[in-house]
Write a structure and sequence with these properties.
Rossmann fold, Udp-n-acetylmuramoylalanyl-d-glutamate--2,6- Diaminopimelate Ligase, Chain: A, domain 1, six-stranded parallel sheet, five-stranded mixed sheet, 15 helices, 17 strands, Phos_Acetyltrans/Butyryltrans, P-loop_NTPase, DRTGG domain protein, Ser_kin/Pase_Hpr-like_N_sf
């Protein structure tokens, strides 16, 4: 029997893929034969005529696994599935998940089982994380990503619900100025409530970064100059709607930020280009003048033109940067390194009995 560990989270987009890959790569490096499963797939993708989950295909490729999609993700949430589930026609899905798990875990030392959404996602068809952990007899590791504040109540409630099945929690994306509060207040509070903190992963700008070319695509815009530099990385963004002097003050503090600015604000555009920003995002479907275009080519700084207004683009950017998928090799390596150096592996192995 393989040791089974479920990686769940308090909400979607918390870093489950990063932790699964980081754990998997570290355990493989330590000589363990690692298997992987994502029982419920929320991002349907067809590959070689079989429906599976986009993240599951990706994680398998990173870990060098080639298991059939119907075993790795026995439940794929398509529109058709939702309709059936809400009208009470999806039947009992747990036996097929348990059967797939049983098949996959043969010949493995450790099974990593990835959650989808939060621990209660999938409750409408009885395949939520709580149920999966209990039915498959797994140990759970729950990720809580800092978004304004940590979900410490949720973590304590999970301990009440899961009991000894909760191996511990990982606090993710913690900025440097919040580490003292986490170490001095939150960690002791959680541990006094029986919640083991397995690791605190610091905020790393690279993990939320996105390439200019991908950004243009996600914003529904196009790169109109310095296209050969569309693989530059954007970590953050600044809105250039203010006066040039005020803009310069902000810009000096945020060097790796894309600058979102109206296509008619050539004054701000020029300051951003000369200050070597990673890219300009011009809004309102307005093209820049020739001076700006020439400087962009000379300085190798791409310009993206988008249809939306500045406010809409800024809202979209916020979502993109908080949810950008971990796809680039550099980010996978960086993520694996963050997980490896932040987690208490000795404790985890002890809990898993490996």
């Amino acid at each position: 029997m393989a040791a089974g560990i479920y990686i769940g989270s308090t909400s979607g987009y918390s870093g489950k893929n990063m932790v699964v890959m980081g754990l998997g790569m570290r355990l493989q490096k330590d000589g363990y034969n690692v298997g992987y499963m994502k029982p419920v797939g929320a991002v349907p993708q067809e590959m070689d005529g079989v429906m599976g989950d986009e993240d599951a295909f990706f994680v398998q490729s990173v870990l060098g696994l080639e298991e059939p999609a119907e075993l790795v993700t026995p439940v794929v949430v398509t529109q058709d599935f939702r309709v059936r589930a809400f009208s009470g026609q999806c039947g009992n899905l747990m036996p097929s998940i348990a059967e797939a798990y049983d098949t996959l875990q043969q010949k493995r030392d450790v099974m990593l089982v990835a959650g989808s959404g939060s621990m209660y996602s999938g409750r409408y068809c009885n395949v939520d994380g709580i149920r999966v952990v209990k039915e498959l007899g797994l140990k759970a590791v729950i990720i809580d990503r800092l978004h304004k504040e940590l979900n410490y109540d949720y973590l304590v409630v999970l301990k009440d619900t899961l009991g000894d099945s909760l191996a511990g929690v990982i606090l993710n994306d913690i900025p440097a100025n919040y580490i003292n509060e986490v170490d001095g207040l939150i960690k002791p509070f959680l541990e006094s409530n029986g919640v083991k903190v397995l690791g605190v992963i610091p905020k790393d700008p690279l993990m939320g970064a996105i390439k200019v070319g991908d950004l243009a695509e996600r914003l529904g815009g196009k790169v109109i100059s310095a296209q050969n530099k569309a693989d530059k990385v954007v970590e953050n963004f600044l809105i250039g709607t203010m006066q040039v002097e005020n803009f310069m003050t902000h810009f000096r503090k945020n060097k790796n930020s894309a600058v979102i600015v109206g296509g008619d604000r050539s004054d701000v555009q020029l300051v951003a280009l000369e200050g070597n920003c990673p890219c300009l995002v011009l809004t309102g479907n307005l093209y820049p003048n020739d001076i700006i275009l020439t400087r962009s080519e000379v300085l190798n700084i791409p310009i993206v033109v988008v249809r939306d207004d500045t406010y809409t683009v800024a809202k979209k950017m916020e979502v993109i940067l908080s949810r950008h998928k971990l796809r680039d090799v550099i980010k996978i390596r960086q993520g694996a390194q963050l997980v490896s150096s932040s987690l208490d592996f000795a404790y985890l192995k002890e809990v898993m009995g490996i």
